[in-house]
Write a structure and sequence with these properties.
Length: about 220
Amino acid sequence: MRSIRFTVILSLCSLSVPAFVMADGQGGGISGDYVETRSAEIYAGPCISNSEVNLAGDQAILGWRINQGSWEGVPLEGLGIIAAVKAKATIGDPYGKPYPAKTVLIVDERASAEQRLALEHFARSKAGELLANVVSVEAAPIHFEERGHGTIVLSGGDIVRIETRGMTEEDHLCGNAELCYKPITALSHAMPVFSLVNQFTGKGLDVKWRIADKSSAFFGTFSY
């Protein structure tokens, strides 16, 4: 059974390598930047990704920064929203059963009540079933900063913190690293980046985490 799983994941990784540009086919109206971290490697050799299935990858943080546009007729320019997720299995494993997952949403404290609701609906629509079970919605200052190509800092109050940097050859431990998972949400453009800090210290998920130094993040842009 284990050798079968290895073969399937190897095949999926090989097919996914060129797929750094992903889109959902929707026209413009709202656009911005996105960052995502997982608790499993997303760019690695099949030996590493296979070893983590059912043991890691059940935690994720998704962060959106709206640069321009509106959702449901509500202007959201300059605002952000973050989703911290604890699933029941490795997210993205075609044989796993990650649902129902638990989600804590962090909405930009600068948003009005109407904007907060629109931000929540936006995040739910883009992450689908993964965000179907929101256990709490918190308002906090959201800081999303791009310091360089692939170098991102995202914080949601003292609840969430992400720090990433661009990949280097030294990050490919197996020597045959490949893209083994796609981003959770459809994007106009996405690239894997190295996660320096992936931290959730809030309540509601029955777990807190601080994960460092993994090839386990994406940075991208969206336009719908």
